[in-house]
Design brief:
By secondary structure, the chain is mainly alpha-helical. Strands 1-2 form a two-stranded antiparallel ribbon.
């Protein structure tokens, strides 16, 4: 329970906290074998958000590429300059999640200049 009301958590997080220990802010539960249905404590590990994103990208770069491609269609149509920037970032190995943060910052900076 939080001051805002009940908080839902994933089964993996529940299992980790119940059997292994607490998680600090910025820590997430990772499935060692990448199977989200395998929630045995022996298959769960604590990672930072950054470590978890890096693991996801390394373990399955094609899935990350597909996510990036589908999410950028609107950007390509409405802002070709920004789309080109995203493409260059991806070609240099910057994953979708990092690119999304950079795009958000880019958009905020452009709002303030207008």
């Amino acid at each position: 329970m939080t001051p805002e009301g009940p908080k839902s958590i994933t089964l993996a997080r529940f299992m980790y906290v119940w059997f292994i220990g607490d998680l600090k802010a910025g820590e997430v539960v990772d499935h060692i074998d990448n199977d989200p249905y395998n929630n045995y404590p022996t298959n769960l590990q604590k990672l930072s958000v950054g470590e978890n994103l890096a693991k996801r990208f390394i373990d399955n770069p094609e899935a990350n590429r597909n996510q990036y491609t589908t999410k950028t269609y609107k950007c390509r149509k409405e802002n070709p300059e920004l789309y080109e920037l995203c493409e260059k970032m991806f070609e240099k190995g910057i994953n979708y999640d990092t690119a999304q943060i950079i795009v958000a910052v880019f958009n905020e900076l452009n709002k303030k200049e207008d």
